[in-house]
């Protein structure tokens, strides 16, 4: 009986101790579980991070290789298109040069034209040299005549210095072996005729006569009366002075622009322009328009049918001189290319210049 009570008391005591420690043990179990689960979750997350890094590395490498392959294809395509364009330009250049040399321009006609132009230029230069030499001789002759005339006028003015038998002049010194050139010129010339100046010519200005015409050197019209003389003193009244009246009478003619312009000025300007155009143009034939050029082209006879000469090799057999010994090291031009399947999609998949794909 006592043992039964003891067991019952022991169980009650253990249950009470367990009941007292239940909350603390529960919290400790929760803390242990949270720590373990945190370690487990962190380990799993680190595992996921490592695997995600591996997956991203593989995917990025795959996409980069695909992008690089596309870039290589685009670069190869652009290079191929540039090569095709360059080769097409070369082909067009050769073909256009061949067509122009064969159908448009005649080498021998151009050569004859240039030779004729050179001969004409030489003739024009020779004529210009002769004309310049003629002008130089004319200027020298006019200068000599002017100098001779000035010397004659000076000799007429200095005729009073001519020597006589009794008194030698200043240009005929007895200490010289012969007379001076001026002395001989004084002997050949005649003295100036004396000028009889009337008394009524004296005026306030001195030189000219008041009764002389308004414009010296201009002949007086038939039936025109001479102008009245200008008095030496100012008359009494509202009149101008003699100096002002004399200056107005001696004033030169100042015609207006309309009077100076010729009545045929337009025709003269047109003739001058035509002569200038005819003198400055280099070709005798007028410019022909590009439209309907075959109608304006003159017929050129063939050398094979119109002459007894041999056929011309230039233009039929070759167009330029070739030296095969200088071309041994060069690679021949490849005229065969691979099939290009991209020209059927021109303008839809790439640009005109081949820069954007």
What would you say this structure looks like, in words?
This is Spermatogenesis-associated protein 17. Keywords: Repeat. InterPro entries: CellDiv_DevSignal_Domain, IQ_motif_EF-hand-BS, P-loop_NTPase. With 357 residues, the chain is mainly alpha-helical. It has eight helices and no strands. The longest helix is centred in the first third of the chain and has 103 residues. The C terminus is likely disordered.
Topology:
Layout: H1 2-104, H2 107-157, H3 181-188, H4 242-249, H5 257-260, H6 265-280, H7 293-296, H8 303-306
In short:
It contains 8 helices and no strands. With 357 residues, it is mostly helical. It comes from Oncorhynchus tshawytscha.
Keywords for this entry:
mainly alpha, 55% helix, 357 residues, disordered C terminus, 8 helices, elongated, single chain
Beta-strand level of the residues, as a percent range?
A: under 5%
Q: Identify the quaternary structure here.
A: single chain
Number of strands: 0
What's the mean pLDDT score? Answer: 79
Basic shape: elongated
Overall structural class, as computed from helix and strand content, comes to mainly alpha
SSE string? HHHHHHHH
What distance separates the N and C termini?
A: 104 Å
Tally of separate helices: 8
Low-confidence stretches: 200-216, 350-357
Percentage of residues assigned to helices: 55-70%
Rg over CA atoms, rounded to whole Å, is 61 Å
Tell me the major beta sheet: none
InterPro entries: CellDiv_DevSignal_Domain (IPR052318), IQ_motif_EF-hand-BS (IPR000048), P-loop_NTPase (IPR027417)
Protein name: Spermatogenesis-associated protein 17
Region (Disordered): 190-222
Organism: Oncorhynchus tshawytscha (Chinook salmon)
